[in-house]
Prior knowledge:
By secondary structure, this protein is an alpha/beta fold. The chain has helices at residues 18-30, 43-49, 82-89, 107-113, 145-156, 169-178, 180-197, 202-222, 227-234, 240-248, 254-276, and strands at residues 9-14, 34-39, 56-59, 72-75, 97-100, 120-124, 134-140, 159-163. Helix content is 49%, strand content 15%. Helix 4 links the parallel strand 5 (97-100) and strand 6. Mean pLDDT is 93; it is low at 1-6.
Amino acid sequence: xxLTAHPTxxxxxxxxxxMGAAIASGAAASMPSIxxxxxxxxxxRARQLLSSHATVKVVADFEGLNxxxxxxxxxxxxxxxxxxxxxxxxxxxxDALVISIAAGIPLVRLQTAVPGLNRLVRVMPNLPAxxxxxxxxxxxxxxxxxxxxxxxxxxxxxxxxxxxxNENDIDLATxxxxxxxxxxxxxxxxxxxxxxxxxxxxxxxxKFARQTVIGAARLLEQDPRSAQDLKVAVTSxxxxxxxxxxxxxxxxxxxxxxxxxxxxxxxxxxxxxxxQR
Length: 277
């Protein structure tokens, strides 16, 4: 991916847990003109989570920032800590682009927490950010094209990024992108269980399941054909895959299960968002 060259961007990362560290490490590696400072009370853990090559300064509290002003703030704390974190950093963000990855926190809540912050973006990355393979989605009401480019570059550094047309679409996308890795992990878990049920030892069954899913995912990434086309390519008429798919794709099996699964997750995301408003 070719990233846009920027003047040096000063970035404040509030919260440097698994996701914050993944974003900071990816951005530091892919955007040479970026200067990242992270605030996290557990400095040692944050440093362990960051890539060993990431040039990210970590401080324990906001006092360690002194009176420094930042161009960009990435809010990576638990939803219940959003208001306090933004208020504590307010003096360091007089005209900053604020990007929140806090689940379920709408833009209006951020505006209420710190009146005067106008350059606001919501982004929902997913767990594969830890492997620089995230599918992140974002929404911004009124920010400049240059701000949008910054968001695209930062989150493009940890995988793929897409803008959504409406803020409520983040809840819908969460049912697919946010929770989707969990579905894949569950599929892999049960594929391993099926192999064990056939009599394979646990370690061998785990290797079968993991590599099968990894290999299929890499093929999806590298091959321009659609998932449906690849499925057809591996399925010989009357063969073994066809026999298995006949069970998996029965009307009450995988097709309807995944619709119900994603709807349930999206509905729960919407419920949590209402609580946070």
